[in-house]
């Protein structure tokens, strides 16, 4: 499989390369410090110590206690554990069976809600969003019922980058004593994650979104939040998530998270400037192009668009031939031919939603990368439109 | 934290060091081939290709189709998915709510069964075992009811090493059309895993038990077996396990599994000889010592004992001071002070079960390692007995 000589990676929302410093931090835990963290001998205690240190690092960044951190295998597991774990625990305590979420969640939340409805008799309210994919906190307030057991709204959308009013929603949830979960997988490494400022009880993260390894995530669970373990077995993670701990991965996650927040301000400033250059350039050079997501309340690295009359997939293939990695939306639903549920929820017509493109910047991107995209993208869109039966000029 | 100059690692059932060849195979997937396997550009296709190749390798060893392999985050997840996934799918289809398992399963199975009973109204039959921890297939046959939806019996016990008559149990399950799961986590890398010979529908593996990385496992699921996904979200793993794939870990798992089976015959022969030397030496040199588990139908690497009048924990601490890593039973329950449920199920009295020691050999162990243990262990046991109020000589 040939890869173009120069790759411009603009899909950091899908995944990131592991930072070499993270690889180095993980290295000793493969062949030397390989002990099982549950074992009592020195080799095991070494592993347990590494885990404790990683847990403290993560807790420090989230402004919580180390014991409120559960290490998981990915953001999807964190979301699933938050939703299933709270829903089943709450129902067992007789609290009810109603869940509130938004209509623009990652599938790890929305499909879990759908399964809880279909197989486990929960009722779910999917809140609408405005044209910028923003949830209105007043809608949350109105949706709350006496039997509401959980509210879950993502911190920032993975497709269009819109940042939600999490703290406000959290305050509303807490007024009513309802646990509040946020999927912060896309926000991790970029936005502040103080769980008290955000008024959240559960928060999901995934290491591979912030230059850590794939296969490891975090679920923060505020002390006292009802949670039924969804992976039972040994007493790992205070009986909330069984399974021999992925020590190397956990060390990698903590190292990556710390690196991200040690340099968040300057990285965000630099990447936001690139994003603005990219957005401005695209909108100026391509007719019938529309920025998707909120114009200002958006992730520093997200530039997402819809281009009328063409298919996002075709753009991607053309970009790939030029060595540019991009996405039409979520990598997790790239096998699907359906238009994005996020774009549809924003009121974008299905035929327009098909023409979506998500460019997500990262640490290694430069102005030259952005300018190269701006140089080639207008031509690609134009060429595809020339071939499109939908394009007015072709009718 | 100081580690003794020379470590003799005899806890391979808890975890293993990653084989350097496995580390090397994973290496490119951190910083170079870091694509998301769901992405359509070349970097993503490279990752998807690596996953496909790993899946084919595992399928080859299990004698199944690649699409019957689900990559998970560990053995515990595999067990949980097998039990929960089949139980809920079967009940949804109106098949019933009765599960059959043994009384010597790993907690990933037994605690999951207990939660299914307590929170989800399933009924579970826990089959007894004989004094060697062996399940009688006739007991399985007798326990089957019209509403039995799943049978789960481990391939080999993690504490005492007894190998179960899986093929026979599988045939009985299949006569009645009941899905049969086996937790093969301890057997992986050592015993043959032909899913057709074993007559199993679901089989769990964990990479870190066979010199692969922690944080990655396998669940084999025979085509047509009802399974409700327990981690919903993206369409990964054919919608049976959502979450961005841990490409490096999966490549590591497949590499480790292949290395294990390429050399299983010679490794097993060498390790079995060491085990016999160890068992013989212990029984000859230490009075009131008893081998636990089956004398011949046992894992090649497992030498497990009970020593009357003393605590297993105390033995471990003394061994650790001499640089010997061992376990009193399962690493996953080492935080517990309860005697092993496996030893109790075998009819060993609680006060004797407290004096358990598990020595599990591995590739790097030598005759010198075994002889060193045989040199120091009798003295440790003697010393502890001198201090024990239970020891008849002290009364």
Question: Can you lay out the helices and strands and say which pair or pack?
Answer:
The structure is a homodimer of 395-residue chains.
Chain A: E1 8-9, H1 20-26, H2 28-31, H3 42-62, E2 69-72, H4 75-92, E3 98-102, H5 107-120, E4 123-127, H6 137-143, E5 148-152, H7 166-175, E6 180-183, E7 202-206, E8 217-221, H8 236-239, H9 247-262, H10 264-285, E9 289-291, E10 302-307, H11 312-321, E11 324-325, H12 341-345, H13 350-353, E12 356-360, H14 367-387
Parallel strand pairs in A: 1-11, 3-4, 3-5, 5-6, 6-7
Antiparallel strand pairs in A: 2-8, 7-8, 9-10, 10-12
Could you give a quick summary of the protein structure above?
With 395 residues, the first copy, chain A, is α/β, with parallel strands linked by helices. Chain A is built from 14 helices and 12 strands. At the A-B interface, helix 1, helix 3, helix 4, helix 5 and helix 9 of A face helix 1, helix 3, helix 4, helix 5 and helix 9 of B.
Textual characterization of the structure:
Two copies of one chain form a homodimer. In chain A, helix 1 runs antiparallel to helix 9 and helix 10 packs parallel to helix 14. In chain A, the strands form three sheets. A seven-stranded mixed sheet of chain A has the order 2-8-7-6-5-3-4, sandwiched between helices. A three-stranded antiparallel sheet of chain A has the order 9-10-12. Chain A has 14 helices and twelve strands. In chain A, 61% of the residues are buried. Chain A has 395 residues and is an alpha/beta fold. The mean pLDDT of chain A is 95.
What attributes does this structure have?
homodimer; 395 residues; alpha/beta; three-stranded antiparallel β-sheet; 41% helix; 13% strand; globular
